[in-house]
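Students often ask why inverse folding is considered easier than folding. One informal answer: many sequences map to the same fold, so there is more than one right answer. In these notes we will look at a single instance of the problem. The structure comes first.
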């Protein structure tokens, strides 16, 4: 993905830099997955499956790290943008619910 492929929208969910960092990480994962697809297509021997499995595990781990990065960035940004303690608590509860739902 080229840097200009997606327009980064300003908002209060994440900073522009956080979005850029996350998009770069996702682009690398996308490349990893393309590599896995090639490995699957070229797999001819039983030993090739080991390489495919290893790369799938690496891509899965990278995606998990991206999820953590997303939530960490959201916690930082939304805490700073909270109007008061009550607002900060409400935002924290929403992010905790995301963690509970998807982690």
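Output (designed amino acids):
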């Amino acid at each position: 993905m080229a840097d200009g492929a997606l327009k980064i929208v300003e908002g209060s969910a994440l900073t522009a830099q956080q979005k850029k960092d996350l998009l770069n990480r996702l682009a690398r994962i996308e490349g990893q997955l393309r590599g896995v697809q090639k490995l699957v297509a070229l797999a001819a021997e039983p030993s090739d499956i080991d390489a495919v499995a290893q790369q799938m595990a690496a891509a899965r781990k990278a995606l998990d790290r991206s999820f953590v990065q997303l939530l960490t960035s959201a916690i930082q940004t939304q805490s700073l943008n909270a109007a008061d303690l009550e607002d900060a608590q409400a935002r924290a509860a929403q992010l905790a619910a995301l963690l509970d739902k998807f982690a």
